[in-house]
Amino acid sequence: MIKNPDAVLELEDGSKFRGHFFGKKRSVAGEVVFNTGMVGYPEMLTDPSYYGQIVIMTYPLVGNYGVPKQDNGNVPKFFESNRIQVTALIISHLAQRPSHWSCDRTLDCWLDSENVPGIAGLDTRALTKKLREHGTMLGRITAEDPVDFYDINKDNLVEKVSVEEPQMFDKGSKKVVLVDCGLKLNILRSLLDRGVSVKRVGWDYDYTKDDFDGLLISNGPGDPERCEKTISILKSAVEMERPIMGICLGNQLISLALGGKTYKLKYGHRSQNQPCIDESTGKCYITSQNHGYAVSPSSLPEDVDVWFRNLNDDTIEGIRHKSRPIFATQFHPEDCPGPTDTRFIFDEFVKQL
After folding, report:
1. Do 47 and 175 meet the contact criterion of CB atoms below 8 Å apart?
2. Which of 53, 297, 304, 347 has the most beta carbons within 10 angstroms of its beta carbon?
């Protein structure tokens, strides 16, 4: 039993889980999801794909290596955006005395500085089992002022996390347009490391009249069908016969542009140990993932092949066009956090430019 609990997570079915506040003590609401990764909380918390979600970490000890230092005010290497994106964090045990050479502050202090609440001491095992049986649920955390349940999937979340103005990164002669639908910064780093110039643009930016050699559609939060402008522009880009790559939400958006359909998973894939098999070679890769939607296999047109499948539930983890230079993965080849097994996919993209 928790002694003198001061924080309550209430699910939409009325069930309540009690613990202690850390970070900022305030009321919030969102979609409750769980992540089964053992490490990588700085990357996870700053990943825009988690925007609007209350995230449960199933690993029992969180915060034990603290939060990395900032480099002259720049975004730290292990941050995937410039701020915490989750609505709240739920954990079992909070490490108050972290130990790591790069540690600058505690997880508690970091959340407090960014106005994000956390709950520790909660039975994360029981909560995760409930979500696995029922599926993803809405939830709310109440401090002084009560809040209503909030279904984030009714909104276009991509609009809330995408870059507002184009940004240029000149590194080479080959030019890539990177559509930011909630970009993880390691995707940008992965392109720049391969010596290409990148133009980072917003989710609704029309790049079809720009001068570019390839197109990459990033990850992002929410229901892909809400991104109608992105899909419409993509349909025009498909006809341009230039290499197109997608990651996570990008995989879903490309599939929708090619005529496929998407659906919401029961509780999604959020971890760094998802096994995916390459259908063309039979090789299995361990991948990092964070998504709540998937592409429907029966909806794909005849000129699109399933490239990767998830070995846990057989869902589509990648597609490839039979005649055009278009391919995408549902998992994250840029890792961060997670295994680096599939970084070669960026090499394949750059070779085609």
Report:
1. no
2. 53
Residue 2 has pLDDT above 70, yes or no: no
Q: From the candidates 248, 276, 317, 321, which is the catalytic residue?
A: 248
Residue 150 token pair:
């909030």
Boundary (domain end) residue, out of 101, 124, 154: 154
Rg from Cα positions in the chain: 20
The last residue of a domain, from among 154, 176, 199: 154
Per-residue pLDDT reduced to its tens digit, 81-138 = 999 999 999 999 999 999 998 898 999 999 999 999 999 999 999 999 999 999 999 9
pLDDT of residue 76: 74
Note the pLDDT of residue 152: 86
* Structure tokens belonging to residue 134: 């029922």
List the domain range (segments joined by +) for residue 119.
Answer: 7-154
What is the mean pLDDT of the segment spanning 148-161?
A: 92
How far is 244 from 250, CA to CA, in rounded Å?
10
The single residue listed with the structure tokens 């600058």 is 104
Containing H/E element for 231? helix 228-238
| Active-site entry in 269, 291, 321, 332 | 332
248 is catalytic: yes
Strand partners, 327: 245, 320
Domain with residue 302: its CATH number is: 3.40.50.880
CATH code, 104: 3.50.30.20
Cis-peptide into 337, omega within 30 deg: yes
Q: Which of 159, 291, 334, 336 is catalytic?
A: 334
